[in-house]
Amino acid sequence: MFFHIVLERNMQLHPRHFGRDLRDKLVSKLMKDVEGTCSGRHGFIVAITGIESVGKGLIRDGTGFVTFPVKYQCVVFRPFKGEILEAVVSMVNKMGFFAEAGPVQIFVSNHLIPDDMEFQSGDVPNYTTSDGSVKIQKDSEVRLKIIGTRVDATEIFCIGTIKDDFLGVISDPGATS
Amino acid sequence: MSLTADSPVHSPSTSSEDFAAFLDAELDSASDASPHPVGEEEEIEEEAEAEKDDEGDDTNDYDLDFERIKRCKVEILENLSEVETTTSQGVDIQISGASSDKDVCVHPGVIGGLCIRCGLKMDDESGVAFSYIHKNLRLANDEIARLRDKDLKNLLRHKKLYLVLDLDHTLLNSSRFLDITIEEGYLKGSRDDLPDALKSSLYRLDSMHMMTKLRPFVHTFLNEASNLFEMYIYTMGERAYALQMAKLLDPGDVYFNSRVIAQGDCTQRHQKGLDIVLGQESAVLILDDTEAVWGKHKENLILMERYHFFASSCHQFGFSSKSLSELKTDESESDGALATVLKVLQRIHNSFFDTEHSASLVDRDVRQVLKIVKKEVLKGCKVVFTRVFPTQFQGENHHLWKMAEQLGATCSTELDPSVTHVVSLDAGTEKSRWAVQMGKFLVHPRWIEAANYLWKKQPEESYSVSNSKDH
Ligand SMILES: [Zn+2]
């Protein structure tokens, strides 16, 4: 799920950046520092959308660096248990398959793949129904439901299932249109 | 600068954040077909703790109240589902947490700290690690058995077996830059100056400070074997090296997929085990040049003659002769070890899937087939050893004696007309002279070793025995 929220961060800046474009420097450094990172609490910071405020700077003893508290608006992405997500399959093996929804990695074990889908090894490993009508392989797009999440400081890992109504393949890269 | 260390100042009063926390708890409890009391409580406690950090804020009291309400709600939900279970099932009150689920999850495996089946947070370190599939994957023994069983049936339907391949000295040979001798120096020169055969099989891996030479015939071998087997790479080398080698051998990533097992994956030090191969042992063949590492799986092993291309490799194994690279030559492409072993693999595969066979496919054992095929090699030979074992040594315990028997020969200590070969290191012994007189073959012990590697009886005249007095 995506959220638009306000976060705050203390930014340290070297005195050589002080000048007319100090604010720009702060913002670009902020983007570089936080976009694409993950915090256990909020999930992935996808993009900064605006700056709420830049507080008064505080000189750090001894170094000359100045700390500015910056409040910024950003879009964060955080999966929840029970959420339905669309993801791209990144690897298929006899254990199940891995899929990615942006920066989030999701594993769907073969316990949670419908029983009528069988693993097929070979050049392009895949799960296929006995009549061959549905196939999951690398780069397939699937709709899955999150049943467990583990959020660490740097990554979010999920367990998903496609063993339920309206879940499974949305597009099949093997079927050329 | 890590994000968590100098983390942004949390401002729990921000409305969006409360919303996130609220959703988290709501979704967790609402979506839960099978409530997980442990996981839930952890989650909520975290939230509450984070909230406590900021004191003196007016909104904080509200937050804490809010937390309390949330917690009550969760508890009520749990109670509700519990009541439902007991009334609907009526009998088993013990499995309170399982609610409408048919069965309690046995947690067959854990990946990234989550159960692969129910998604519950798991922190115990039980089960076998399958780090080559995913860095944080562990499977319980029952699950491994289930996967193997399922996979074998699938594989047999495709008329395939498993093949585990060693890298060094079996499929290729590597040498560090600094071990390259002067005579091998031409290898480091410009690619255009290399002989044609080397252009496509010699690789310079600057980032690893080494060179790798693929064994002749390896590409054909892999291509042909992939039709008969699901293949694994299994090396005592480090993971980075193994993956690099896999890339050289399998640039299209069609043979090995994620089945590359390296040193760090083994469950026992200095041993290679099939415990981390997701294949039934009765359907696995192994190609390796080192027997000792396969302590528990010698019956699955086809021993390979070592491929020494570089000088450093020869020295490492105590050969003082010139290496293939120094002699600017190589193993034969059409007649080398990999071509030979491919024919053996094909023979075993054929015999395994032979329709004449009485046992059903799943009950067949490739180890038995391997033994039978091997026994064909010296079938009909009756061998007597002389001056091969140390005096006082029990002949039947010697590895050559055992090897000859595995190859289908009969071994004896007595000379009689049925003896076909006398194996000796010295043409001057009584038994050696008897062989010559009676018109029996007199051969060097290498004749047996060669048959063992080549899976074929070798021409006796190439393994003649010299008289020790000649030296
Ligand atoms: Zn479980």
TrEMBL record, chain A:
GO cellular component: nuclear DNA-directed RNA polymerase complex
Major subcellular location class: nucleus
Superkingdom in the source lineage: Eukaryota
Domain S1 motif, first and last residues per copy: 79-156
Domain RNA polymerase Rpb7-like N-terminal: 8-64
Places the protein is found: Nucleus
Record-linked Gene3D superfamilies: Nucleic acid-binding proteins (2.40.50.140), RNA polymerase Rpb7-like, N-terminal domain (3.30.1490.120)
InterPro entries with a match to the protein in the record: NA-bd_OB-fold, RNA_pol_Rpb7-like_N_sf, Rpb7-like, Rpb7-like_N, S1_domain
Chain coiled-coil ranges: none
Keywords, alphabetical: DNA-directed RNA polymerase, Nucleus, Transcription
Biological processes, Gene Ontology terms: DNA-templated transcription initiation
Functional summary from the UniProt entry: DNA-dependent RNA polymerase which catalyzes the transcription of DNA into RNA using the four ribonucleoside triphosphates as substrates.
Protein family according to the UniProt entry: Belongs to the eukaryotic RPB7/RPC8 RNA polymerase subunit family.
The name this protein goes by in its record: DNA-directed RNA polymerase subunit
Species annotation: Cinchona calisaya
Lineage start: Eukaryota, Viridiplantae, Streptophyta, Embryophyta, Tracheophyta
From TrEMBL, chain B:
Domain of life from the UniProt record: Eukaryota
One GO term of the biological process aspect: response to salt stress
Protein's cellular compartments: Nucleus
Keyword Repressor included in the entry's annotation: yes
Keyword check for Transcription regulation: yes
Domain spans labelled BRCT: 373-465
EC numbers for this chain: 3.1.3.16
Ranges where the record places region Disordered: 1-62
One family name in Pfam for this protein: PTCB-BRCT
GO molecular function terms listed in the Swiss-Prot or TrEMBL record: metal ion binding; RNA binding; RNA polymerase II CTD heptapeptide repeat phosphatase activity
NCBIfam families: FCP1_euk (TIGR02250)
Record protein name field: RNA polymerase II C-terminal domain phosphatase-like
Native source organism of the sequence: Cinchona calisaya
